[in-house]
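Model it.
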Amino acid sequence: MSSEFFGMHGLGWLELLQLTGHFALLSLLAVGGAITSASDMQRYLVGERGWIDALQFNASVAIAQAAPGPNILFVALLGWSVAGPLGLLATMAGIMVPSSVLTLVVSRYGRTRRDTLPVRAFSVGLAPLTIGLLLATGWVLAQPSRGHWGAVLLVPVTIVFMLSTTRSPLWMIALGAVVGALGYA
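Modeled.
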């Protein structure tokens, strides 16, 4: 059977191990979920390796976020785009195994020491880190739309809307869909 049958698309076993290793490292840095490390996934897969292009990357994230199910599905789609079924296994094993083991160990440790200053400080310190990682992800995902004035205008409008009202964010998603359908984004 050919390597194409196994979904390797020109990637050898060494590249698959590197893919798994990179996603394993990101797994340990993905405070707030895998989406917070999407900017580095884009840098690695698109910029450094050239295994997929920016459009494939953004499409994988968009499709997975729109589909029902866990948000981490975009990692599976990225792996599939890079190397088929084996790429999917490589990225999902890399992103899931290290963080799951770390979570198990830390949660057992933290449960018995949750009132100590180091554990409380660690927990409080994760919030700004998560926000920064999400902003980096938003920056990367917005790159293709930066030339469209409608998309650029939607950002401050959405921020003001979300900070000044308790209405559902679905209204802003609907507005974005209209602006996109009209060709302004």
